[in-house]
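Technical annex, item 7. During the second reporting period the consortium partners agreed on a shared format for inverse folding records so that results from different sites could be compared directly. Each record opens with the tokenized structure and is followed by the designed sequence. A conforming record, contributed by the partner at site C, is shown below for reference.
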């Protein structure tokens, strides 16, 4: 048995029973554990996605390692036709592999002035209908090919979280820490990444379970799959907080910025929140609506806004449609979409975006901000706020199937 086959078998025997117990059908199996095998592997039901991270020069003579990895997955009972290979290529693509374009250089987004933050005063209930201010003019045609949007998770690509697991102990748990009780963790980072360019078209969607939730994934058409596994536990923390408010007969208006395919929106809605989901991509918003339907949720009871999140918040729409009891904001690491004014870079631009979100909260509202950049540092303006406490949740939200604590950072403002 090869070294990689042995590692895959041992990890599988450890994670598969845990995932089955918690009804988790999508989990990370392998993440470059052995340097000679630079791959990331995630399981989706009876299928596997392998992200090929080989360097064209360094790993030129290691083709057998790739072959052994495929054989190792087959040895776990995964049919070879259900193994999907993805490779992000910075240079000329290999035969039958997909290339992604390098980002264009544009001027940065003009930030809003930095001010000292205090709790806002409620300004009334959100309006019932928000017009689609920036629709996809091509109807069902993909709107994803005209931009470069990167989430720097795990290097070039990776991302999303854990369900029912205590990250510090490695044991399954039915009661993760409350958002308002979890202590400040040591500042660590866990990285994930996503690139939104479409690679192919019209591949069938699969349904995978995450506890009581269902999500549609597409293993072929994009570099990512539609579900970031490294935020599984973060999603559950969101649901638990909303459920406590619901049990106390308190309403929760939940705003999900850069909502992607709406996994956080689904968790919040099933827990009893009224959800507003905002994303620049009409395709991803439609995907989010399908996820709502898959979970038995009425889309008409929630809002799906197709708009550039940065201009939407900069123009005061988060505040005007609120206030909100809960905001989740998970921006890309970098973006230079044609639909934006200038570029976005999370380290450079996060302070004014967080300020806009905090201004849209109710007096008892909370916000979670996630940054997918390995060297991300929260702006010092947030070190001493009058009415908000900032806690880091990075360690608390690291799933059992992820071991890179430097791939993303998660912060709670309460």
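Designed sequence (site C submission):
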């Amino acid at each position: 048995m090869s070294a990689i086959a042995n590692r895959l078998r041992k990890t599988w025997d450890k994670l598969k029973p845990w995932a089955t117990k918690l009804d988790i059908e999508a989990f990370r199996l392998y993440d470059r554990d052995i340097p000679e095998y630079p791959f990331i592997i995630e399981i989706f039901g009876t299928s596997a996605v392998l992200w090929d991270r080989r360097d064209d020069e360094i790993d030129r003579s290691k083709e057998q390692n790739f072959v052994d990895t495929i054989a190792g997955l087959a040895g776990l009972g995964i049919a070879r036709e259900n193994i999907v290979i993805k490779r992000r290529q910075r240079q000329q693509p290999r035969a039958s592999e997909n290339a992604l374009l390098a980002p264009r250089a544009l001027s940065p987004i003009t930030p809003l002035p930095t001010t000292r933050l205090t709790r806002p005063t409620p300004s009334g209930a959100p309006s019932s209908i928000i017009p689609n201010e920036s629709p996809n003019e091509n109807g069902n045609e993909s709107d994803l090919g005209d931009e470069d949007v990167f989430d720097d998770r795990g290097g070039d690509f990776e991302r999303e979280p854990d369900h029912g697991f205590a990250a510090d102990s490695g044991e399954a748990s039915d009661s993760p820490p409350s958002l308002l009780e979890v202590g400040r963790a040591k500042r660590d980072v866990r990285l994930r990444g996503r690139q939104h360019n479409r690679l192919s078209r019209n591949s069938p969607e699969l349904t995978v379970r995450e506890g009581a939730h269902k999500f549609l994934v597409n293993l072929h058409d994009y570099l990512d799959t539609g579900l970031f596994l490294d935020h599984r536990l973060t999603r559950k923390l969101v649901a638990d907080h909303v459920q406590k408010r619901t049990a106390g007969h308190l309403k929760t208006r939940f705003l999900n910025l850069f909502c992607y395919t709406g996994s956080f929106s689904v968790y919040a809605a099933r827990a009893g929140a009224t959800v507003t989901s905002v994303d620049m991509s009409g395709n991803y918003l439609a995907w989010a609506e399908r996820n709502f339907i898959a979970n038995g949720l009425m889309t008409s009871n929630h809002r799906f806004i197709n708009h550039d999140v940065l201009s939407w918040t900069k123009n005061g729409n988060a505040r005007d449609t609120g206030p909100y009891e809960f905001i989740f904001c998970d921006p890309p690491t970098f973006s230079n979409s044609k639909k934006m004014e200038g570029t976005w870079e999370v380290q450079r631009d996060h302070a004014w975006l967080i300020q806009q979100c905090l201004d849209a909260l109710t007096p008892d509202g909370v916000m979670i901000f996630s940054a997918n950049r390995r060297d991300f540092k929260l702006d010092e303006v947030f070190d001493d706020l009058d009415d908000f406490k900032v806690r880091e949740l990075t360690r608390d939200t690291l799933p059992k199937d992820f071991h890179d604590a430097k791939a993303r950072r998660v912060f709670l403002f309460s």
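The longest strand covers residues 361-371. The first helix runs from residue 3 to 21. All partners now use this format for quarterly exchanges.
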